[in-house]
Amino acid sequence: MKIKLTNAGKRYSREWIFRNLAYEFLPATKYAITGPNGSGKSTLLQVLSGALILNEGNADWEINEKLIDPDAINSCISLAAPYLELIEEMTAKEFLLFHGNFKNYLNNFSVEAILGEANLDSAANKQIRFFSSGMKQRLKLAQAIFSDVPAVFLDEPCTNLDNSGFELYYNWIEKYCNNRLVIISSNDKNEYHFCDRVINIQDYKIIKSATA
């Protein structure tokens, strides 16, 4: 997948979160979006995922040089983010089975195999509300990374992970994401040090009035 932003700008009320952003996100490339807390990293990631609409400029999504209909973008992207909650009344197995109704899993991985990869096989039938914060994060990452889609978006991917969780994350990125577009939103270099390119959203903080 390729995503092209042309003179892109997003604002809330009279405050521009970013403006005049022209950039191409290319297939099989890993990108990091960095900047201080509250700078708009998550907003840009949501624009790239098609969840938010630009106030000015254009965003285009392509696969094999063919434009994707905006209504179909969600089927081509997976996302793990702090603001996307798990369904805590479900068990881990039920959650992955439910998610699999909407997107196939990579390499025909079974739900059981994915839970094993995430070291959650012993908790497969436990309700998610009884999980630790680290277990929940591993499940979030698993549903995103093991989805069979051309683009994987991760917002603060290692939140609540311990050292073993970081190692699991690095392993998944190396093993399952090399041929996909990966975009990571983070201000922690440990989460994106392997990325090919880094975008600092502060470079697009051009403050103008909303009528400019």
How would you summarize what this structure contains?
The chain is α/β, with parallel strands linked by helices and about 210 residues long. It has a single domain (about 1-205), classed as 3-Layer(aba) Sandwich (Rossmann fold), CATH 3.40.50. It has helices spanning about 40-50, 90-100, 110-115, 135-145, 165-175, 190; strands at about 1-10, 15-25, 30-35, 55-65, 65, 75-80, 150-155, 180-185, 195-200.
What's the structural blueprint in terms of helices and strands?
Layout: E1 2-12, E2 15-25, E3 30-34, H1 41-48, E4 56-63, E5 66-67, E6 77-80, H2 92-99, H3 111-117, H4 133-145, E7 151-155, H5 163-176, E8 181-185, H6 189-192, E9 197-200
Report on the architecture of this protein.
With 212 residues, this protein is α/β, with parallel strands linked by helices. It has a single domain (2-204), classed as P-loop containing nucleotide triphosphate hydrolases (Rossmann fold, 3-Layer(aba) Sandwich). It contains six helices and nine strands, in the order E-E-E-H-E-E-E-H-H-H-E-H-E-H-E. The strands form two sheets. It has a five-stranded parallel beta sheet, with helices on both faces. Strands 2-1-4-5 form a four-stranded antiparallel beta sheet, covered by helices on one side. Strand 4 (56-63) and strand 5 (66-67) form a beta hairpin. Mean pLDDT is 94; it is low at 207-212.
What is the 3D shape?
globular
Helix and strand sequence: EEEHEEEHHHEHEHE
Question: What is the CATH superfamily?
Answer: P-loop containing nucleotide triphosphate hydrolases
Q: What is the CATH architecture descriptor?
A: 3-Layer(aba) Sandwich
Low-confidence stretches: 207-212
Number of E-state strands: 9
Percent range for helical residues?
25-40%
Instruction: Report the mean per-residue pLDDT as an integer.
Output: 94
Strand order of the largest sheet: 6-7-8-3-9
CATH fold title: Rossmann fold
Query: Rg to the nearest angstrom?
Result: 17 Å
Largest sheet: 5 strands, parallel
Q: What is the terminal-to-terminal distance?
A: 33 Å
With helices defined by DSSP (H or I, 4 residues minimum), what is the helix count? 6
The domain count comes to 1
CATH top level assignment: Alpha Beta
Strand content: 25-35%
Secondary-structure content class = alpha/beta
